[in-house]
């Protein structure tokens, strides 16, 4: 569209796939805003197909030659969003207006960010998750979950999103049961999150459900040494 800027006179490349819309005055493939970037270094951006990138959005190239900023396919990136250097965005995501991703953020697939949200650098946003409007996300959001708040906290599963994406009643029921065992225990003496996850894995029915296993792995991955842990949650004790 009129006023859009694509690419920059920099070493490296910006590669854009088929059937993308780049809105008025969007800036795609510009130099990053990372102070560690060294002038003259190669930097890269690769965008897939069928993305709608709306007006005044900015998407920056990587901060170093060994990394790359990546956008997948079929994403809706609304007006005035920002995707910083070295981000990895999957496919079929929706970023409402003024969604701001700092450097090195990973967004999987089918995530939905409501408007005016900020994501801290190096955070991971799991597939089929939902971020409420105005949230500040400073830690990982596991798959299938919903967060909101000035310092985003877990608010449960993204139930409406799961239904809209065709998850079965049985899958959702199993995810809810697993979520409650981990984050809403009936006994205050069941230990921490890891202990409760082990309990879910020992449940003969839940452990057979692929979506439950995927959620457990997503939570566990967030506690790896190079990750930021999961968003805070309130340990409701159900009596």
UniProtKB/TrEMBL annotation:
<dbReference type="InterPro" id="IPR029098">
    <property type="entry name" value="Acetyltransf_C"/>
</dbReference>
<dbReference type="Pfam" id="PF00132">
    <property type="entry name" value="Hexapep"/>
</dbReference>
<protein>
    <submittedName>
        <fullName>Probable acyl-[acyl-carrier-protein]--UDP-N-acetylglucosamine O-acyltransferase, mitochondrial isoform X4</fullName>
    </submittedName>
</protein>
<keyword id="KW-0444">Lipid biosynthesis</keyword>
<keyword id="KW-0443">Lipid metabolism</keyword>
<keyword id="KW-0808">Transferase</keyword>
<keyword id="KW-0012">Acyltransferase</keyword>
<dbReference type="InterPro" id="IPR037157">
    <property type="entry name" value="Acetyltransf_C_sf"/>
</dbReference>
<keyword id="KW-0441">Lipid A biosynthesis</keyword>
<dbReference type="InterPro" id="IPR010137">
    <property type="entry name" value="Lipid_A_LpxA"/>
</dbReference>
<dbReference type="InterPro" id="IPR011004">
    <property type="entry name" value="Trimer_LpxA-like_sf"/>
</dbReference>
<feature type="domain" description="UDP N-acetylglucosamine O-acyltransferase C-terminal">
    <location>
        <begin position="140"/>
        <end position="231"/>
    </location>
</feature>
<dbReference type="InterPro" id="IPR001451">
    <property type="entry name" value="Hexapep"/>
</dbReference>
<dbReference type="Pfam" id="PF13720">
    <property type="entry name" value="Acetyltransf_11"/>
</dbReference>
């Amino acid at each position: 569209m009129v006023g859009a800027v694509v690419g920059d006179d920099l070493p490296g490349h910006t590669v854009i796939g088929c059937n993308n819309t780049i809105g008025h005055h969007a800036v795609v493939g510009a130099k990053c805003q990372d102070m560690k970037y060294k002038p003259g270094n190669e930097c890269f951006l690769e965008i897939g197909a069928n993305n709608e990138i709306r007006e005044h959005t900015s998407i920056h190239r990587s901060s170093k030659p060994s990394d790359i900023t990546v956008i997948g396919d079929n994403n809706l990136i609304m007006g005035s969003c920002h995707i910083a250097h070295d981000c990895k965005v999957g496919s079929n995501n929706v970023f409402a207006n003024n969604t701001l991703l700092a450097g090195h953020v990973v967004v999987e697939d089918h995530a939905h960010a409501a408007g005016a949200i900020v994501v801290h650098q190096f955070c991971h946003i799991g597939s089929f998750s939902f971020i409420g409007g105005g949230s500040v996300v400073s830690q990982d959001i596991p798959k299938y979950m919903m967060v909101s708040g000035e310092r985003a906290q877990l608010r449960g599963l993204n139930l409406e999103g799961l239904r809209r994406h065709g998850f079965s009643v049985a899958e959702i029921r199993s995810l809810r049961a697993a979520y409650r065992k981990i984050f809403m225990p009936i006994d205050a003496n069941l230990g921490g999150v890891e202990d409760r996850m082990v309990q879910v894995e020992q449940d003969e029915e839940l452990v057979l459900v692929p979506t439950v296993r995927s959620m457990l792995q997503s939570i566990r991955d967030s506690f790896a040494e190079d990750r930021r842990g999961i968003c805070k949650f309130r340990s409701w004790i159900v009596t």
